[in-house]
Amino acid sequence: MIRRLLYILYIGMCVPGLLPAQINTDRVMTIGKNALYFEDYVLSIQYFNQVINARPYLAEPFFYRGLAKMNLDDYQGAEADCNEALERNPFVVNAYQVRGISRIRQGKYAEAISDYERALDLDPENVSLWHNLALCRIHEKDYAVAKADLDTLIRISPRYTDAYLMRTEVSLKQKDTLQAMTDADRAIQMDRYNPDTWASRGMLFLQRQKYADAESDLTEAIRLSVRNAGLYINRALARYHQNNLRGAMSDYDLALDVEPGNFIGHYNRGLLRAQVGDDNRAIEDFDFVLQVEPDNMMATFNRGLLRDRTGDYQGAVEDYSAVLGEYPDFLLGYQYRAAVLRKLGDLKGADADEFKVLKARLDAQNGKRQTASNNGEKTRKQSDKNVENFRKIMVADNEDEQSRYKTDYRGRVQDRNVNILPQPMFALTYYERREEVRRQINYYKGIDDLNGRHVLPHQLLITNAEASLTEELVKQHFASIDEQTAAIVREPGNALHYYARALDFYLVQDFDNALSDLDEAIRCDSAFMPAYFSRALIYYKQLEYRKRDKNYEVEMKLEKEYQVRAYDYNKVKDDLDKVIRLAPDFVYAYYNRGNILTAMKDYRGALADYTKAIELDPRFADAYFNRGLTNIFLGNNTQGIRDLSKAGELGIFSAYNIIKRFTAVPEK
Question: H/E element holding 487?
Fold first, then answer.
């Protein structure tokens, strides 16, 4: 009965209409921040709403709710919540940060600059704030001040690569190519494994018409970031300028494999296919362009030429006529249409077009008409509407769109590609995140048997791609907590009721209550393996939250600092040891224990566990990936790369990026 009363008090905080004083706001804030940290944004907002209702004078819940809304792309809502937070406490640096990002996403750059300037008054050495401020200045074309800001940022953090890359951009805007090249070289010296550094210098070479150097740098950027369509587009341009049409076309093929809807890729590939006589496939490219931009007259004219060459004379006439309707002085169009009309037997129409051309030439000779001029350039801007340039390769209007270098406004710690992270722990849960590529089906007979008994509200899944709950699912699991509590009252010795309620608590991010119920489940049935497995995972998540919380970049500093040491993971390891004793063929326990041993810096033990997992399941991609990383960490690069290659073969494509970084790169 005591547990029942405690539970009723807990549920009281989730039921609308109860007095605000009935909830423990500190506890609800902690659960809300758990949900936020593990990217359960909808759920976290519900918890922060409860705290706001109970204590509307606090700044903290407004800030965190704003952060959650920002992650859900509700930028207006995030800005409004940060306004509330700053009204209550104008000294919260990260509230300015989140509000600044939300304003940027709404195009309010001047207001965002004001936020970053205020935040820097409070925290003058915050790299993230200087980073975002400089990007806002660049967007506002205030290049001199942006450069001064970046100079300051580099003084604060001399090893911060992004600052050099941004200063490269600013120097180019100011036509200072010498400084731009100096910064690009410096960025590569500091971070050879960052594709942005190579891409930035490659585009600088391209702008300076050093096409072979540009191709070399862009090739290195592609080696480090193979799934970037913009890099292939830019290397194709470098190859085109070196008259390597086949190489350029190959790059457009690769770019369109990565990004099938890339407009520039289709247009330029169509031009190159036409040049090498691949007419039918060139028509397909221009068909795509015209689906996106039906009024693109240069694509229409190019398709007309190709239809003419492939014998579709009526289609060619339609295309030529469409272009001439828009550009009635385009003489070349009349010439081509006249030739096609003669093939169709329309001599009167052909004569009319030829007379139009003849008259225009006579007018030009008599000085009554200007002849079209060509500036000799091999490329044109995307916005160029001069139909005379129909044969020119297209480049983006804004140089930034060509992906010379792009960077994000920083709002939280993002795991950039310089950070190599292992595959995550496996969990028993009801929901799995959908992935484009399904790597493997996770199966264990004992869990399948448990599902077959229909003793849990939903089918248990084994996954390390957990899905966040929707608002409707959150309501369902709070209701399920109530149902399971009633079942516990009826059968207090039934471990499954405690386990089911523990899963509900876990899914709504209430780890303390989940652990309490798992303890009870184990007390009722000490041989119930899933309870140990779930308890190990939740212990681990608590430790990860405490360890990483101080690095959560837009998070307010907690009053109490947590330090997580290796021996704190012993409780997790003990539970996984028990799982393995109870179910020695449960492959996911070995894998999870390998991850824990890695966290405890017992790398040899981790290798043994990953190896055992692979022995039990030779197609276990995640185990190959993590064993590969562990081997590389220990200096066993050959074995590590072999494992990563297998992981990539089995569907973890990020493994290939890591392989490239740890394969020897010859000095340039």
Answer: helix 471-490
